[in-house]
Amino acid sequence: MNRRLALAVLPLLLALTACTSGTVDDDPAPRPAAAERPSPFQDCATLSTAPAAASSGSGTATPASPGSDPTARATGGSALPELTLSCFTGGAPVVLREVAGPAVINVWASWCPPCRKELPAFQRLSERAAGQLQVVGVNSRDSRSGAQSIGEDFGVRFPILVDQGEALQRELKRNAIPLTLFVAADGQVRHIDASGALDDATLAKLVRQHLGLAVPA
Q1: Full-prediction pTM beyond 0.85?
Q2: Rounded distance between C-alpha atoms, residue 164 and residue 107, angstroms
Q3: Which H/E stretch holds residue 137?
């Protein structure tokens, strides 16, 4: 009787062993990492090329009439610092002094509330003055994910340089951000604004005053 019972149970045990043995992978292959999100920003390849209409007077922005604003032709200034910064989208590093003017360079970070407030105005400036001046961002002491999220959420599309060591601020002897540099066609920095968040009207006024270009606000 016991022998019959053993013979009856043996096939069942063998069947159970077959269902479990070798069917569970104790060391599964790692899943491939999720693809990195594409950058919302433009690349930096054309920053050393002067705006197409800068010398022709065509486009959305137009040369301001000197007679209509006594400060329209600002003089003096200094060259951009001799720095080389990486581009957020990759590619060749950018020599800051080779960024072709007229240009508006905005230093910002995702953790800076005034920076976040003014970034949409800089995006609109880049659209309204396309072909007449360049709008360039310098992301300072920030995380890549933070900057990426701001670009996605606020629709920021202009090129972004990366300055994690605050080298530009040290060269300019400025501690706080946001900072905005107004660079003329001759490469001279005509004005550095550190007054806080800039809106469309103030940006248009500063571009007219320091770069001699009339841009719709």
Answers
A1: no
A2: 11
A3: strand 134-140
Contact present, 50 and 122 (Cβ < 8 Å)? no
| pLDDT in the model for residue 28 | 39
Hunting for tokens 């197409």 — which residue is that?
Answer: 52
Give the tens place of pLDDT for each residue, 3-44: 555 555 444 443 433 333 333 344 434 433 344 678 899 999
Backbone angles phi, psi at 200, to 5 degrees: -60, -45
From residue 140, alpha-carbon distances to 88, 109, 135, 168 in Å are 11, 6, 16, 9
What is the DSSP-derived secondary structure letter of residue 29?
P
Residue 137 in tokens: 């961002």
Phi, psi of 168 (to 5 degrees): -65, -45
Rounded to 10 deg, the angle between the 144-154 and 113-128 helix axes is 50
Q: How many CA atoms lie within 13 A of 30 on its CB side?
A: 3
> Can you give the length of the chain in residues?
217
